[in-house]
Every structure is written in C-alpha cells, then in structure tokens.
Give the backbone structure.
Amino acid sequence: MKYHDTVSMPASSATASAPIAQAKLGRRVEPDLRIALCAAACFGLALLWWARGGWIFPLDDAYITLHNARVLIDGHDPNYGVPALVGASSPIHLALVTAFSLVLPGEAAAYLVAGIGLVLFLAGLLTLAQRLGLPWPEGTALALVGVASGAGQFLNGLETGLVMAAVTWALVFALDRPSRRLALVCGLLPFLRPELGLLSLILMTRQLWLRLKAGPDRVTALRAVMADATVVLLAASPWLVWSLATTGALLPQTMAAKRAFFPKPSGSLPENLFYAALLTAIGIGPAVAALPFLGRDRMAWAIWSFVGLFILGFALTNWEVLAHNGYRYTYALLPIALFAALSFGAGRGLRLLRPLILTQAAVALLSPTHIAAGQERVAQYRALAQWAQANLPQAHLLIHDAGVIAEASNLPLTDLVGLKSPDSIADHRRWTAPSGGTQRFRALDAIVRRSGATHAIILDDAPDRFWASLTDDLRRGGWTLDPLDTGTTRGPYILYHLTPPASAAAE
C-alpha cells in the first residue's frame, strides 16, 4: 500500500489546522484500493443476484418504477391511463431504469441501477476519506460501514441509493475549489428527490460566494458565476421540461399525494420538530452523533442549513413519513453524518472515531431490514394479481399499493392514495387531510363511485391495521366487501368484491 503526505483539500478549518491531520492523518488511500473495493462490491452484487436466481424488491413502490418504465417503452398505460411520470418520485431514476430495460428484464435493470448507486456511494465515501486525510484503515472501515448501514435501501429498488451517492459526490466536489462539476450535480439533485433542491440551492450559493471573494477581478468572477448558472440550468432543463409537459408541475407530486392521504400529526411545531429530528436520528444511526462536530466554517454552516431545513420541512408537513419504508427519506442525510464523522476523525484524532465506527457497524448488522418479509409479501401480491388477471378479466380494481398489480396485470386500476390516480388527491384534500383522517371514508366513497371499481385489493397489516382500516372506511360509506378465495396463500393482500350502497345501486 502506498501513501502520500499531502491532502487534496481540507474540509474545514479544524481539519486544516489539526497537527494530527498534518502528521499521522496526512495519508490517503491510493486509487488502487478504491478500485479494488468497488470491484469487490460489483462482484458481491452479481453473486447475490446469481445465488438468489434474481431479485424480488421488498417494496411495492419499486414496481411502480418498473411499470412506469414499461409505459415509457410501450407508449401507453393500460392500467391507469396516465403519463409514465405520474407517480414517479425521481425522473432520473425512472430514466435510468427505462434505459437499461431496453436490453434487460425489468427487475434486472432496476437491480443494476441499484448497484450503480451502491458503488458510487462507496467510491464517494472513500474519496471523502482521502480528501480529509484519514488513514486508510479508518477511512475504509467507515466507508464500508456506511454501505452496510444503507444495505436495505440499496436493495429496495427505489432511488434512495442514487440519492446517497449524489449527496456524497456533491460533498466531494464542494470540498474542492469552485467547479462546474458541483454545478452539474446540483442541477440534477432536485430530480433525484425534490427535497435535495434545498441542498443544491445552499451549495451553489456557497460556491457563488467563493467565486466572488476569490480575487479582485470581478468580471472574471461574474463570468464564472454565469457559467455555473448555465451548467445548472442545462442539467436541470430536460427534467423540468419533461415534468412540466407530462404532469403540469415542475417537480414530482408524490409527496403532495402523501400529504393529503396520511393524516398530519396534530402536535405543536416544537413537538413536531422534536419528533422529526428523533426519527431522522433513528434512521441515520449512531453516526448522527458526529454532526455537532462539523466545525464552524462556511462548509459546515451550509450543511447545517440543509439538515435544519430538511427536518423543518418534514415537521411542517408530516414527520411520520420519515419512518416509512425503513426510514428511507432520512438516508439522504446519511452521507452528511458520515462526512461529519470523517471530519471529526481527521480533525480531532481517532480515539473517539473508532468506537463510533464499531457502534454504527453493530447497529447496521443487528438492525432488521425486513427484506425477506417484504419479498414474501410482494410475491404473494404478484400471485394475487396474476389470479385476478386470469379470473376477473372485466374487473376494475381499487388498490393502494400501485406497483406490483400494474406490473403483473393489464387490468384497469384506481389508486385510492393518488400516486397513480391524481384525481384521488382532490378527494383527500377535501375530506381526509382537514379531518385528520376521520372523514377519509367520504373520500373513499367518492373515489369508488367515480372510478366504477368492482373489486378492491387491501393489505391486511395486523396488528397495526392502517391499511386494513380502509375496509372499515368503505363499509362506513355503505359498501359491502366480500373476500374472494383466490387459491393463493392467505394474506396479507386480500381481494374483495365490492357491492355498492343501496342508494348507489339504485342510481
């Protein structure tokens, strides 16, 4: 293993001035180790695919992306009758899955995109460790622990892995002198996840300030700023145009649908801030303890601004969403927490960093990811969808998990949440959201009547009974639900025949 005695660029004033960073920590990993580790990650992902005979994604949302990719390729949606971008959280993720779907089966294409996210994330963490001058054992260990912490998110078929990779590389580029590379990444970030638009704005504002203070030549500085703005606009414009042309909005509207459907907690703003911060910390793990030690330079203030606005945004909307799907929304902050840990180790020594690495590793290995249970649930849902396709060719299905059923059948569907059936959002804005969920039965009644649904597929999620309570709402609205014997394994998804209320039947 070779070492160098210089560091590319320090992340903070604390890091730059630390004697340890100049002496012991002033060593970086040669590119051959990074390449070897990334190659090993690729081999591991390929081995997992081979050993399992493919991969079933544990979340239904992953199959929304596969359905949307099929719609883009085929040119029409037989299930929902809406453009492919409706219900997509990430246009960039959808575009990548679609491109690979031209040459690979859908699940293989999504798995490949997931693998790209994992490898880029690992490479970014190793590069951060190099930039900060961390010795290779500690830098490599923390990078591998970071990948292990996000393992469940890399394998869920969603854009979360690409989000973590993009945030990591944005931090890498922000550590260097102002560059077009950072502008390019910042132009793409909002189209990986909308909330990353805040990070883009903050990092580009910081780069603008650095450009203007770089020297007395104001004309050259302004030209550089204009060039940055051009790069951001060029990177963002294809996704802006696509979204505006197909959905009428500049950014994905999936969070708007969830805000209308999921009841907002009724606590005060301080209470909501506390719970949003708590769920964020739970999602990230012990690495969150390093955040207070980021330092006081402008890079640290930029990062803290994003973290604060991120938590405030969910506190103002619905902090409970942060716990959905294995806390996946909080993983946008995992690279920032790991960056803080790397900075802490480089600036303050390794004595406290090593226990943090071990603690994060223990939590990553001991925390259940529920991947197997999710895969079993998806497999049962797929079998149910195939049964409905074969035995109910004239049915119109009311559903709340919009992916697997659309990927496995051509039946007409209505998404009662609103991700793939935008008309449902207005009903929830009228009834569900203002009442905190108590009047949701009125929204469901309006949705079923308008859609003409004849059957419903609802998840029996006992003991929580959030989704199962939809059957109570439908019955409260006067609808009769008769479970059908589909010949598949009982539950957790149950297919019901819907009989309208007497008043609706008379009409």
Q: What stands out?
A: Confidence is low (pLDDT under 50) at residues 1-29. The chain is about 60% helix and 5% strand.
